[in-house]
Amino acid sequence: MLKLVVLISGGGSNLRALLEATRDADYPARVIAVGADRDAEGFEHAEAFGIPTFTVPFSSFADREAWGDELLEQIRSWQPDLVVLSGFMRLVPPRVVEAFSPRLINTHPAYLPEFPGAHGVRDALAAGVDETGASVIVVDDGVDSGPILRQERIPVLPGDTQASLHDRIKPVERRMLVQTILDIATGTIDLTEKTPA
Ligand code: GRF
What we know:
Elements: E1 2-8, H1 13-21, E2 29-36, H2 43-48, E3 53-55, H3 64-77, E4 82-85, H4 94-100, E5 104-108, H5 120-127, E6 131-138, E7 148-155, H6 162-186
Helix pairs in contact: 1-6, 3-4
This protein binds 5-O-phosphono-beta-D-ribofuranosylamine.
5-O-phosphono-beta-D-ribofuranosylamine (GRF) binds next to α1, β5 and α6.
């Protein structure tokens, strides 16, 4: 049974989908803790499933390094087999990447390497492309630059807003995240072969 720590920052709809998947006794992964850099709305999903949460508020630390060290200790205390970023809106500090990658994955609402960074949906719209996508990647020291584990194309429709496009992307992200974690748990994906360059 793969033990997961999931990190969020916002509503946690992708986390919710993962929690729903773990209701299936045959799904070989369990979320053992949910963390965030703030008092995230998505904690409500963890609480609904009786899963412990932890908060490492970015604003409570003197600097990014001190915040990163505390985040690392909090994650490490759960001894996860895999750390999943799902709407975590901070760059992961190098010490956390070093400690966990490639057992550290992220979902991104674009077809990487297209539109990396915190505004992938907005940037795709602004670029006027007729298709974008969603990606599940291994987190490395860069910005959404790690090995791609799974990705799919998603159309941009006339009249799309950032919200309507993101709402079309998220279900794809959720399905890919649940499938990717299953593949990692069953060995279909061997993360040791995905060690960032
Ligand atoms: C997802 O699209 C994720 O890829 C991006 O932020 C969104 C988080 O959504 N980083 P939610 O918090 O899971 O609803």
